Amino acid sequence: MNVKSLKETIELLRSLLNMERTQENRADIKVVVNAIGEELSINLNDTINFFDTCSTDEFYWCSMQFVNLAKNFRSKELVACVERNIARIESKFTREELNFELEEMRKHV
């Protein structure tokens, strides 16, 4: 996994989502979200390590790919990793949102 590239891609996603929505940047958002998923899907251990060491903001932006990662890796270790990293999130609302994704992940393990 290229962590530097992944972090840059996450930052690009953040900036795209802060822009006014147009047909063009909606397509860009989809490409960027897919790029994040592709990078995270390369290696389970690297993905777990990234989640355990990234910022809570980076973790949140990766959440769009949690279910896809669960389908790809079918790993209890990944589910446990996501669960412990959700606990790092300060916002109760965000934790609830991510816990919904966590429950969806569990269906694929």
Describe the structure.
- There is one protein chain.
- The protein has one domain.
- The chain has helices at residues 3-18, 23-40, 44-53, 56-62, 66-73, 76-86, 92-106.
- 78% of the residues lie in helices and 0% in strands.
- The two termini are 23 Å apart.
- The protein contains seven helices and no strands.
- The protein is an all-alpha fold and 109 residues long.
- The protein is globular and about 40 Å long.
Quick overview:
Helix content is 78%, strand content 0%.
Give the % helix: over 70%
Mean pLDDT across residues? 94
Question: Structural class of the helices, strands and pairings?
Answer: mainly alpha
| Major pleated sheet | none
Order of helices and strands: HHHHHHH
Q: Which characteristics define this entry?
A:
78% helix, mainly alpha, 109 residues
Q: What is the strand and helix layout of this fold?
A:
Elements: H1 3-18, H2 23-40, H3 44-53, H4 56-62, H5 66-73, H6 76-86, H7 92-106
